[in-house]
Design goal:
- The protein is mostly helical and about 60 residues long.
- Helices cover about 95% and strands about 0% of the residues.
- The chain is built from 1 helix and no strands.
- The protein has one helix spanning about 1-60.
- The radius of gyration is 26 Å and the shape is rod-shaped.
C-alpha cells in the first residue's frame, strides 16, 4: 500500500512539473512575441520619421 501511495504522489508531482513547464514555455513565447511586436512598432515609427524628414528636406 505504501508503495502505491508513493507511486501516485510521484506521478502527481511529475504531472505538476510538466504543467508548470508548459505554462512557463507559453509565457516565455508570449513575452517574446510582445517584444518582437514592440520592436517592429518602434522600427516602423523610426522609419516613418526618417522618411518624413527626408521628404521635408526635399521640399525645401
Amino acid at each position: 500500500m505504501n508503495r502505491r501511495i508513493r507511486k501516485k504522489v510521484a506521478k502527481r508531482r511529475l504531472e505538476e512539473a510538466i504543467r508548470w513547464l508548459i505554462d512557463y514555455a507559453l509565457e516565455q513565447a508570449q513575452k517574446e512575441e510582445e517584444i518582437k511586436q514592440r520592436f517592429l512598432e518602434s522600427y516602423d515609427r523610426y522609419y516613418r520619421e526618417r522618411t518624413q524628414g527626408k521628404e521635408g528636406l526635399a521640399q525645401l
